[in-house]
């Protein structure tokens, strides 16, 4: 498809990212010296350390790949925001430790520079041995006490990472402070606030410090939609430090969503997941995590097992530049985020006003095809496949976050909306150039206007499909339409 836009809003994606304090990679700039470079990961979920009880579903290979990329970029530190060992076993955590020693022998880059670990535990690291999958492997407290991290966390941490364990800690890395808070500590009443207050002298000021725990601070990044927020203790504590930049995981939210970066009383950034991603629900091909499937949905949900995200942060005196990395395809997952320093508040509502709106190309068409399909519950269903071109943003324009697909029924001289669905492109979480060229949304024929419906006219029933690309804030580009269908 040619890059001839139907009606792209002037200024393009770059205009939004600059105005919102989020920028393209080319805009990261070299006007000032890079002070610090940090690799950022979470939710690695290594499982292949369970050597004698069966699982080879996961591997440390992706983690090693990410570390190698960070090494080649000359990082000074690597942050891991929890969930390293899927089943909470030291044998799994050791896979991660061994990968670290392989890529950074002696904790050093090839040029001799030191690379610091800023790692914290997540719920899987301390509780994973209690979860259903571990039980299927036969893991119990009695049979695997020697391997369960939470039963001897200080000793395990020392063996795996060659450093002492502390429930909360502060590290100084090239003059920048990093605060790590392990799992469960951030939910204890007053614990984070007391720790930050005890270190107030070294954390206060305009210079950023970096904070990491596993759960997202409540009502910050991706809120209020995202699952897996904490109880609010960390949010209340961090509000006293506008220079704080928090990196947290657990939700596995793809980094292709700009709402994963929140700027309020402090800055809060989701870290995605290196193992697999979890899209927001509310789309025909997604679901709310932890909820039961709606069996009548016509499409299977995206499992995103091939989604592996991380970030590379470069710290300058006047800004943070965050490369969002798609490690499945070894490409940027989207334009870099640029956060000005000192950081100030910029709400989702404010950012949405300047966000570029995706638009179809001028030759975009919507096609329909009746098929014999199956709904999400696996039941045979007569369906209509509605197919249209993706809006990938590879022509210098804005990429679609998702699509709205409406069924419009003709009622005499006007159209009425009969049904609305939203749908993701099949690989919307990958680098844009690797996403699929077309998108399909399925409707059961029983969901569509019927000849005996309440809007029937003497000339029969007509309906069509209207498709609009949307950004993550919900702003929609101009719709394209299918041909009218008559029943």
Gist?
The chain is α+β, with helices and mostly antiparallel strands and 487 residues long.
Structure commentary:
The structure is a single chain. Helices cover 16% and strands 25% of the residues. The protein is α+β, with helices and mostly antiparallel strands and 487 residues long. It folds into 2 domains: 21-273 and 308-345, Metallo-dependent phosphatases (Purple Acid Phosphatase, chain A, domain 2, 4-Layer Sandwich); 367-486, Immunoglobulin-like (Sandwich), CATH 2.60.40. Strands 1, 2, 3, 10, 11, 12 and 13 form a 7-stranded mixed beta sheet that branches. Helix 2 (61-72) runs parallel beside helix 3 and helix 3 packs parallel to helix 6 (153-161). Residues 5-20, 23-30, 49-57 and 455-459 have low confidence and may be disordered.
Descriptive key words:
487 residues, alpha+beta, Purple Acid Phosphatase, chain A, domain 2, Immunoglobulin-like, 25% strand, globular
């Amino acid at each position: 498809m040619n890059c001839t836009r139907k009606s792209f809003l002037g200024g393009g994606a770059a205009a939004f990212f600059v105005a919102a304090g989020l920028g393209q990679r080319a805009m990261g700039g070299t006007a000032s010296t890079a002070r610090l470079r940090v690799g950022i990961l979470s939710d690695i979920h290594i499982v292949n350390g369970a050597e004698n009880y069966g699982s080879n579903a996961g591997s440390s290979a992706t983690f090693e790949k990410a570390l190698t990329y960070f090494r080649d970029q000359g990082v000074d530190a690597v942050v891991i925001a929890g969930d390293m060992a899927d089943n909470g076993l030291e044998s799994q955590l050791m896979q991660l430790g061994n990968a670290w020693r392989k890529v950074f022998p002696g904790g050093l880059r090839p040029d001799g520079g030191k690379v610091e670990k800023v790692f914290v535990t997540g719920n899987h690291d301390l509780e994973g041995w209690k979860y259903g999958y571990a039980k299927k492997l036969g893991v119990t407290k009695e049979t695997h006490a020697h391997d369960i991290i939470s039963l001897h966390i200080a000793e395990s941490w020392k063996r795996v990472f060659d450093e002492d364990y502390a429930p909360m800690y502060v590290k100084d890395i090239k003059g920048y402070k990093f605060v790590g808070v392990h799992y469960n500590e951030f939910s204890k009443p007053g614990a984070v606030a007391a720790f930050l207050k005890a270190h107030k002298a070294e954390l206060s000021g305009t210079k950023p410090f970096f904070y990491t725990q596993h759960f997202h601070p409540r009502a910050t990044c991706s809120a209020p939609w995202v699952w897996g927020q904490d109880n609010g203790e960390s949010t209340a504590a961090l509000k006293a430090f506008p220079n704080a930049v928090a990196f947290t995981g657990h939700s596995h939210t793809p980094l292709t969503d700009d709402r994963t970066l929140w700027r309020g009383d402090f800055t809060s950034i989701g870290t995605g997941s290196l193992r697999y991603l979890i899209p927001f629900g509310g789309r025909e091909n997604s679901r709310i995590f932890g909820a039961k499937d709606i069996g009548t949905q016509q499409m299977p949900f995206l499992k995103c097992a091939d989604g592996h995200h991380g970030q590379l942060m470069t710290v300058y005196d006047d800004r943070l530049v965050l490369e969002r990395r798609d490690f499945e395809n070894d490409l940027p997952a989207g334009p870099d985020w640029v956060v000005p320093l000192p950081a100030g508040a910029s709400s989702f509502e404010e950012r949405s006003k300047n966000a570029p709106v995706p638009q179809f190309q001028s030759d975009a068409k919507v096609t329909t095809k009746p098929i014999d399909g199956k709904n999400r519950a696996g039941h045979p269903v007569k369906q209509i496949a509605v197919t249209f071109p993706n809006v990938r943003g590879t022509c210098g324009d804005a990429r679609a976050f998702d699509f709205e697909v409406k069924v419009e029924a003709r009622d005499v001289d006007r159209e009425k909306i009969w049904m609305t669905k939203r749908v993701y492109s099949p690989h919307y979480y990958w680098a844009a150039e690797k996403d699929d060229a077309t998108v399909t949304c399925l409707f059961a024929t029983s969901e569509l206007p019927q000849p005996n419906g309440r809007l029937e006219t003497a000339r029969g029933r007509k309906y069509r499909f209207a498709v609009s690309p949307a950004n993550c804030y919900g702003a929609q580009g101009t719709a394209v339409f299918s041909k009218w269908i008559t029943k």
